C-alpha cells in the first residue's frame, strides 16, 4: 500500500519534520492511506504505516483510535458523520437519526446495500449553533430537519 503516489504523499509530510521525528507524520499518513483504501483502515495498514515511519505499531493505533476521522470498518461512498453530542441531542438529533436509519435501512457502522451511504456517530463537530447537524464528506449540514436531510441525501450521486 505504501508505494507509488501514496508513498510520495506521505514522504512530502515526512519532509516537514526532522529526520528523527518521522512519527510526526502519523496523522497525515493515516489519512492518506485511509483515502487510498477506500475510506477505512485495517490493522495491516496501520502496521505498515508504523513500519514505514519507524515507530511501534501501538503508536499508530493510539492515534488512529483516538480521533474520529479514522474509520476502522468499510464505509459508504458518502459517510454521514452524525453528531451525537449534547446540543444536537437536545435539538432532536437522536430522533432525526432514527428517521435517517429507517430511510437508509442501516444502523451506525453499517453500509447500505448499494454501497452509497454509511452512518457514523461522532462527537461534537463544533457547529453546535447549527444543531442538529451532520458532516457528509467535507461538508457541514446544519439546522437539519427530516425534509432538509432527505433532500440532501436525494441530491447526492
Ligand atoms: S453538539 Fe453537535 S455540533 Fe456540537
Automatic annotation (TrEMBL):
Q: Which domain of life is it from?
A: Bacteria
Which residues are noted in the entry as [2Fe-2S] cluster-binding?
83, 88, 124, 128
Q: What Gene3D superfamilies does the annotation carry?
A: Glutaredoxin (3.40.30.10), NADH-quinone oxidoreductase subunit E (1.10.10.1590)
Q: Which Pfam families does this UniProt record tie to the protein?
A: 2Fe-2S_thioredx (PF01257)
> Could you tell me which CDD domains the record lists for this protein?
TRX_Fd_NuoE
Q: What reaction gets catalysed by this protein?
A: a quinone + NADH + 5 H(+)(in) = a quinol + NAD(+) + 4 H(+)(out)
Needed co-factor(s): [2Fe-2S] cluster
Q: Which InterPro entries match?
A: NuoE-like, NuoE_dom, NuoE_N, Thioredoxin-like_sf
Keyword terms of this UniProt record? 2Fe-2S, Iron, Iron-sulfur, Metal-binding, Oxidoreductase
From the UniProt record, which GO molecular function terms apply? 2 iron, 2 sulfur cluster binding; metal ion binding; NADH dehydrogenase activity
| Cofactor: how bound | Binds 1 [2Fe-2S] cluster.
Similarity comment text for this entry: Belongs to the complex I 24 kDa subunit family.
Name of the protein: NADH-quinone oxidoreductase subunit E
Origin organism is Thiomicrorhabdus xiamenensis
What is the name of the gene encoding this protein? nuoE
